[in-house]
Amino acid sequence: MILSLALAAALAAEPTKDPRQLLLDAMAAELSRNHAELTLHENKPPYFISYQVKDYDEREIAARYGALFQDDAYRDRKVYADVRVGSYELDSSVGEELDFSFSLKGTSYITKKNGPIDDDPLALRTALWLVTDEKYKAALFNFLKKKGESVYTVDDPSRPPSFSKEKVEVFLQPPAPFAFSRERWIRLARAASARFNASPQLFDSEVRISADKLTRYFVSSEGARLVTEETLFAVHVSAVTRAADGQLLDNSRDFYAPLEAQLPSDQAISEAAEKMISELLSLRMAPAIDPYTGPAILEPDAAGVLFHEAVGHRLEGERQDSDSEGKTFRGQVGKTVLPQFISVIDDPTLRDWSGVQLNGYYRFDEEGVRGQRTALVEDGVLKSYLLSRHPVETFLRSNGHGRAQGNRKPVARMANLIVESKKQVGEAELKRMLIAEAKRQKKPFGLIIRDITGGNTNTSGFGYQAFKGIPRMVFRVDVRDGSETLVRGVEIVGTPLSSINRVLATGKRQGVFNGFCGAESGNVPVSAIAPATLLQEIELQRTLEGKDRPPLLQSPSAAQKPAR
To answer: What is the pLDDT of residue 458?
Structure first.
């Protein structure tokens, strides 16, 4: 009895171990076992292994027409294993599009890439063990195939290594608070969505609030041990209508913040909904314009999307040596690629910009490398690329931009893209320059693009190098008196280098576009920071013209007064 009491006292005195450390230890133990023992006959064992576990804790509320439509909570853990055979100089890694491991015989089972949501070390190790076995066999297959294919290709003395050597990081972040005021957001979603009922021309709308917490565990055979926690809260307000000619028109507001308290107030969100309604009703009455080529001012949001699509994606490292890519900026380091007053930086270490929280902030990328500020273009001259641990010719080290969604393979991606200018003028002067340029080109008007929903681009070497932007609020500026008229029905198109090299000047104030970017490694949170930009020439084509009729009967809620 005395011994039992003493043991109980000793156990009580021992500090409780952080459960996150227990999981990290389990990952490290399974990694060490596989790194030391995993092999197949006379073939090489893995020279490098890393594990990543992403723990997702998510909340989501959505309302339409003043009523709750969704109230969800979701929990998941995803696992990813990077298993490499060979050496840093030449290993088994290939792009997803060239994954040789799917032979003609195929495989009869693909391992699930999920981990236990229970803090069960043994279950986690078992999940990692099975994924590692699959990844090792695939890596061995790819390595042998890669070696065999070298018989048919000449040696390339400038070929960079397969994998970069990086500083080993050890970091255990303190737990991040994750409070979600469910009742508040339900009330707000109902009230804000009810405001749209008073405008029967808007036939559908939604108010959606989400809260996400991501706890990320990372271990590697090099000795990296990381636990990071990130939270992201968002409010999305959207609505759709149709013009008299049947064109579908949409509008939205998106608010992001790492902390719930940093989201806008209920009143600010309601005011944003009212402004959206006003804009959509105006767009319904706005004239559709014909395709246009001429000068335009892109306000900060639109300019940020332009640089993101036309420049940022083409500076991602893996694109510089992939045979399927157009390689727009390959071999251009040290050469002028943009106007000499423009610089472009990507900085994942920035949490906010002038008080606006940035989506693209993170401490470490998905390959365990610390995020780093990277000067991509200085005074128009190309200096570097966005780099993961996939080396690019003359750039053999990562700058912490290997990113991925869930358990997809990381590749170099943007984080917080910043556009800086040394040729800045005030808003009034920028508009005067727009009118002067339109007159010089003998155009009856120029354009101001004040808002944009997003964009996309094609970087493939098998197609045309082009990008597209989807503007929302476009104004025609009459060269005679400077009057502005809202128009609709166009989208931005162009070839990247031609468009971006026609920047004449920028505004002084930089704005922030927060959102998510989708590419080969999935959707990742990003930000673009840019000033208003005057382009000498921009091309706009007509959007796809819808001819659908709006709903035949009036909405049942149209006669009801919205809650105010």
So the answer is: 52
